[in-house]
Amino acid sequence: MTTTAPHIDRPRTTAEGRTALRPRRSVPWGKIAAWAVMVIFLLITLFPFYWMLRTALSSNNALATDPASLLPVGLNTGGFERVFGLQDVETAISQGGSGASINFWRYLLNSVIVATTVTIIQTFSCAMAAYAFSRLRWRGRDTVFLIFLGSLMIPQIFTLLPNFILIKNLGLVDTLLGIMLPTLFISSFAIFFLRQFFNNISREVEEAALIDGASKARVFFTLILPMASAPLATLALLTYMTAWNEYFWSLMVSYTDQSRVLTVALGVFRAQAPGTGPDWSGLMAATLVAAAPMLLLFALFAKKIVNSIGFSGIK
Amino acid sequence: MTSQNHPDSALSRRPLPTRPGLSRRRLLQGSAALAAGAAGAGALAACGADSSAPSGATQIDYWLWDANQLPAYSAAIDLFMEQNPDIVVRITQMGWDDYWTKLTASFVAEAGPDAFTDHLARFPEFVNLGVIAPLDGLAALEDVAAEQFQDGLQELWSDQSGTRYGIPKDYDTIAVLYDQNMLAEEGLAPEDLENLDWNPEDGGSFERMLARLTVDTNGVRGDEEGFDPTSIARYGLGADAGTDYTGQTSWSPFALSTGWTFTDEPTWGTRFNYDDERFAATMDWYFGLVDKGFFPPFGTFGDSSPTQSQLQSGSAALVTVGSWMISTFANMEGMELGIAPLPTGPAGTPVSMFNGLGDSISAQSTHKEEAARLIAFLASDEAQQVIGERAPFFPATDVGTEAAIEAYSARGLDVTPFTDRVARGETGLYPLVENSASIASIMQAAFDQCWMRQIDGADFASYNDRVNALFE
Predict the structure, then answer these.
(1) What does the pLDDT average to over B258-266?
(2) Beta-carbon pairs below 8 A across chains A and B
(3) What's a GO cellular component annotated to this UniProt protein (chain B) (predicted)?
(4) What is the C-alpha separation between A64 and A78, in angstroms, rounded?
């Protein structure tokens, strides 16, 4: 009890100054340490991005003269110029670049078309399928769902050749539709993901709508979809990223610029022949540029993602 | 929350005021419309292409992997299309690894190219699988004689019975590359690297040069007292990240210059000679350089530190490099490229591996005649001149090679240490055999272990038995 007395007295005796009102605090070491750790982690996380930028702004032919330099070696924008196809082939080769013409905007457009179309259609069709699996009663539903789940276990490499032969027979080789088709409508993961969410949506709400005369379709469009907007956004983002990053299938189907997507185009930047050094500055510049849309998406939808992870829905 | 008391199952049993037929139809209609829309969007996107052949012309696909070769071949193929308006060539280029994966998968799916750049390591298996077409009998190629290429090149592209499966495009040899500034700082002249010799016993003047150029982290040279072979600032000889069973740019110049050959026959051998004493001695010497500190231990340099980076960063003084890398080395800043011949071996001359790429035609192609016209044109003097002038490599014919030598010379580069080997017949052929993939996987372990200093040259004999068993 004796120790509390001075605390009670202090405001009364030193009322003239605001600062004196507060108890004298010692240096907040804990806070400083926490900040320091956070800053260190931040730096560690951001350093690879900085290193990419540093390499992108370096001269390819000078990089090895000072490999440990924190600043760009032989500062120039040649890497970015090659990415955007602003360099002629001779200059590009003389700077350690690729002799392939780089039709960057075309590849970007192709990637955007593929990722956007796949995201919109796949998310929508998977939402319908998940609704069917979750809320509609039909014979063999659970069996079909199990088969769907089982397909998650099949490695992609098993389906590669049959898919490719099918696409070839459909005459869709070297078209964007050929790249999109295998993942355009169905993703077992997406169906599973959404079904789990739909299962948690209150049946009472749905029931009320049905009693009021709404059709199942209307329930789906006006009730279920809006209520599932957070997981749908998350799923759409994941789908977009997967479609954006898809490499091997795109490589198989794409023959020319007309269907070449960014990931495949980045492959062109990599070592062309065994023993040939990669065009590091071009590769890093291209990777940064290719990552930009993903970063933008994250910046725009970060809140949605966080929310959807912690969402509770209407129980 | 009025239905709190009803279990979920009750809901399904209860008749509901729904219109299932209508809603299902609507859903189906909606998804069909979406599918059609997507197909339309895809087709529209595809329509933006500009590579479709004009009416009446035949479109053929030509694939290659090397972007550095692309400009030269694009120029030649443009010329071909000018002269052959009935053919449109669609060129596809992709990186080395992707190339073979896609090529193999495309053969399975029967969606491969009509003509493509082929590699000696892959071609025997393609012949076995029957996926590449024999070139004899194709009218356009009848006039393409073996004599128009450098000696031995056409043999590399023919099977045991002499049937051609590829038309040579280019060739490559090995030489020693260095930085002239570094050499000058060491008080040496380019001539000091001209006439070096090598032997597996004491390494000859080449090893003495490596010792002279090796510097430890205390600044002591490899041939001076107090040299610490475990802490090296600059290795005398640079290294690729890995050495494979052909050792093309690493150990093969040394082994071949002892008179050793890969197999019992110049091409299509069925017995490997990894159990030969000369080979064993070469391995003991070559990888023994690690113990002496003149050569980097296994794993010192990874794929991201190829020999050009080692030379440029001053981590290595000399590197043995293939001719396809000349331009890359010549473009590097902060150094002045010097090219020296390989050291003379016990056989009395330097010996370089002789390898080359060729053009093959897919067995599935429905346009073999058109593809044959293309690759015959690429082998013509007219095309070889065009290619040679732009080439960062040596085209297969004399005309192309001369054009390339002149083009390099105009840039101040004397590339004759590469071309002399062919001109003087000082070459050993690339081991053209069947089972190359299996051989590679068996021998990789042996070379890695020898480099790690876990096995000796004599231990290669047991691996050789396993390799030879593949041919029984």
Answers:
(1) 92
(2) 195
(3) cell envelope
(4) 16
